[in-house]
Amino acid sequence: MKLFFISDIHGSLHYARMALEAYKKENAGYIAILGDQLYHGARNPLPKEYNPKETAALLNGFADKIIAVRGNCDSEVDEMVLDYPIMSTYSTILYNDRRLFLTHGHIYGESNLPKLKAGDVLIYGHTHIPKAEKRGDIYIINPGSITFPKENHPNTYGILEGNCFRIKDFYGNVYMEVSLD
C-alpha cells in the first residue's frame, strides 16, 4: 500500500488543494497529516489563501482516508469542524513488519525520541524542514511543510511505497529519499 504524508498546512486552502491533487496523482491509499492543519500559528505570517473554514471542508472530503495527529497549533475547536480525529499526540501504523510512529514533532521528535525498536520509523513535521535518514537502527523522516518550508527547501510531501520513503516537491520530483532496509 502507498501512503501519502503531509504536514503543516496552517489553514492554507491553496496548498491544501495542491497537496490533495498530489495525493490523487500519487494514487495513495491513505493520507497521514502530521499536525498544524487549520491555524497559521502566532509565529507564522498568514499563508497564501488562508481560509481555515474552507480548508476544513476540503479535508473533510477525504476524512475516510486521513490519519492525523495533533500539532502545536491544533486545538479541540479544530476537531469540532473536522470529520476525523486530530487530538492524539501520536499515532502508529504497522507497515511491512515495522512500526511507523507518526507525530507532529513538538513533543516527540529527534531530541525526544519515543521508544522504538530496530527498523522502526519516526515520521514527524513541525520543523518545516524535510529529512529522510537512517540514524543508528531507526529511521527519521520529516516530509517538510506544504505551506511554510524553511531553509530554502521547496514545498514538499512524502510518499511511502514498498520499502522506500520519498520526499517530493509539488512537481513530482524526488527531493530526498531513504530505503527502509
TrEMBL record:
Keywords: Hydrolase, Metal-binding
Annotated EC: 3.1.4.-
Matching Pfam families: Metallophos_2 (PF12850)
Record-annotated Calcineurin-like phosphoesterase domain positions: 1-161
SUPFAM superfamilies given in the database record: Metallo-dependent phosphatases (SSF56300)
Cofactor(s) listed: a divalent metal cation
Group of enzyme by EC: hydrolase
UniProt entry tagged with the keyword Metal-binding: yes
Presence of keyword Hydrolase: yes
GO molecular function, one term: hydrolase activity
Family that this chain belongs to: Belongs to the metallophosphoesterase superfamily. YfcE family.
Protein name as annotated: Phosphoesterase
Species in which this protein is naturally found: Clostridium thermosuccinogenes
